[in-house]
Amino acid sequence: MMYRGTVLDGLALILQLCHVKNNDRVKEKVGEDQSSTKLIVRNVAFEAIEKELRQLFSPFGQVKSLRLPTRFGKHRGFAFVEYVTKQETKNALQALSNTNLYVRHLVCFSGKILI
Fold first, then answer.
1. Which of 2, 57, 77, 107 could bond to 42 as cystine, CB 3.0-4.6 Å?
2. DSSP-derived secondary structure letter, 4
3. Which CATH number belongs to the domain containing residue 48 in this structure?
4. What is the percent of the chain where pLDDT is above 90?
């Protein structure tokens, strides 16, 4: 079998084709806008309630939704915050990167909610 002037066996050809396809996917992803209107907040103190988190995140923009997933009646130590615009999300992310709530350092990062 000939491929780009080189004789390849079947496995080498498959690997070469997979490599080409993966490179195309990487190029597509680099071109996409990676920002999101959603934040994932980890290390949320168990004493914190939704109202306190809303007060913490609302000065940076209009909070579209805020969820504290629960298990057995208590929240699980993380939250999902969604803003209306990407710029509001970016502002909150920059401002809250070194924030403590109930002596716990909040870890915030932008991401898509897959749940």
1. 107
2. T
3. 3.30.70.330
4. 58
3-state SS class at 61: coil
Both tokens of 11, joined, read: 């496995």
Helix (H) or strand (E) holding 3: strand 2-3
In this prediction, residue 27 carries a pLDDT of 40
**Nearest to 101, CA basis, from 35, 55, 66:** 55
DSSP at 84: S
- Within 10 A of 111 (CB to CB), how many other CB atoms are there? 12
How many domains are contained in the chain?
2
Nearest CA-CA partner of 106 in 78, 69, 75: 78
Contact predicate 1/13, CB 8 Å: yes
* Ordered DSSP codes for 57-78: HGGGS-EEEEE--EETTEE-SE
- Cβ atoms 92, 81 nearer than 8 A: yes
